[in-house]
Write a structure and sequence with these properties.
This protein has helices at about 5-15, 30-55, 65-90, 90-100, 110-120, 125-135, 155-175, 175-185, 190-215. By secondary structure, it is an all-alpha fold. It is globular, with a radius of gyration of 19 Å.
């Protein structure tokens, strides 16, 4: 059995992920505020990463200025993450859902919050649907009797970036994820392909964990906020 999906399924799922928009509206205030803080954090991270790259090749005359910029951005990120934690704690429901995601080895608090906000459908989709929404589903290039190379396409870029970092961390601390990576590389898969496979496996596991949490004792899964 394969998780690869064809172009028609991709087109359908692309509509679900367009413009990073969740499947259901309206969004409650705490989720909207969390999303704003998470997106702000991602913007600051991108700026700091850019400054760090510039620092590697900077001439001495501008190095102190760039170092000061990196320090300031790091301080802002720390404050922003505290605000995110406080906002999560203010909502028992959101806090419990973040706890579920964070319980998976390799997924930290900020990553769990980011995925909860950027992929509010977690726990309400099938494994193929959630993989397509985030953009880690293998798309086939088959034609007749010819089998083409699988590739990924579309989905929510910000969520995929977050999942990528989580997969790297899980590759160190999560025995299941690390074992899959090693097996794939041993079979001749490129490291990048193995990492994407880890991203998909991790996402599907998180989706399953959240489904069980949302179902609760009644077994009924509500729509996400």
């Amino acid at each position: 059995k394969t998780d690869a999906i064809d172009a028609k399924v991709l087109a359908h799922m692309a509509k679900l992920a367009v413009d990073e928009t969740p499947l259901w509206e309206p969004v409650e205030e705490v989720v909207a505020d969390l999303r704003a803080l998470v997106e702000r954090r991602q913007g600051l991270l991108a700026r700091r990463d850019g400054e760090k790259k510039r620092l590697r090749f900077a001439r001495d005359i501008v190095r102190p200025d760039i170092e000061a910029s990196v320090a300031l951005l790091t301080e802002q990120l720390g404050k922003l993450e505290k605000r995110i934690d406080a906002l999560v704690a203010s909502s028992p429901r959101i806090a419990s859902e973040v706890d579920v995601l964070e319980s998976v080895r390799g997924v930290g608090r900020v990553t769990a919050t980011t995925l909860r906000v950027l992929v509010p459908e977690l726990g309400t989709l099938t494994r193929r649907e959630v993989a397509a929404v985030v953009g880690v589903a293998p798309i086939n290039r088959d034609s007749g009797t010819k089998t083409g190379r699988r590739y990924i396409q579309g989905g929510r870029h910000a969520a995929r970036q977050c999942l990528y970092m989580a997969a790297l961390a899980a590759g160190r601390w999560n025995d299941v994820i690390r074992a899959q990576y090693q097996q794939l590389v041993a079979r001749g898969k490129k490291p990048k392909v193995a990492i994407v496979a880890n991203m998909r496996k991790l996402l599907i596991h998180l989706n399953s964990r959240m489904r069980n949490h949302l179902a609760g004792p009644t077994g009924a899964v509500p729509k996400p906020a």
